[in-house]
Amino acid sequence: MGLVLIAQVDVFPTLSIKDYNTKMDLTGITLNITLNVQNPYPFEIVLKGIDLNVKVGNYTLAKISTTSQTKIASSSSANITLSASATYDKALEAIDVLLSSNKITLSLDGNMVFDLNVPNLQTQTLNIPINISREF
């Protein structure tokens, strides 16, 4: 019954880009992205995985995939940091895209997978598409 209620009100966990930073080494550039995941439910959820395409402007810089499990308490949020690495040639292509714009737009598209630990019901899996962006 709890899952029916969730589906009826269209309330799902949400994801937002909190921050990012870049690091350079001999092999290329690493983009570290901090995401904030909000749990709107009155019970714990477990983020089981994320698959994302990372775009700078309209250019796909890298893909991120993780299966690290993160528990998010009821009606709270958690910050998750993911890393995307790109070789210098790919990074230079992204820089060319950025030079034609006065703002940096970081976009993520893909999906998140959650386990819902609804009390008195069997654990349910929820797959949520992601399509977010933020200008910096």
Q: Can you describe what's shown?
A:
- Residues 1-9 have low confidence and may be disordered.
- With 136 residues, the chain is mainly beta.
- The longest helix has 12 residues, at 88-99.
- It is elongated.
- Strands 3, 4, 5, 7 and 8 form a five-stranded antiparallel sheet that branches.
- It is built from two helices and eight strands.
Quick recap of the structure?
The protein contains two helices and eight strands.
Total DSSP helices: 2
- Give the % helix: 10-25%
Main sheet properties:
5 strands, antiparallel
Residues in β-strands, percent: over 45%
Helix/strand structural class:
mainly beta
Number of strands: 8
Provide tags for this entry:
136 residues; mainly beta; five-stranded antiparallel beta sheet; 59% strand; disordered N terminus
Layout of SSEs?
Blueprint (H helix, E strand, L loop, with lengths): L1 H8 L4 E11 L3 E11 L6 E12 L2 E8 L3 E3 L4 E11 H12 L5 E12 L7 E12 L1
Antiparallel strand pairs: 1-2, 2-6, 3-4, 3-5, 3-7, 7-8
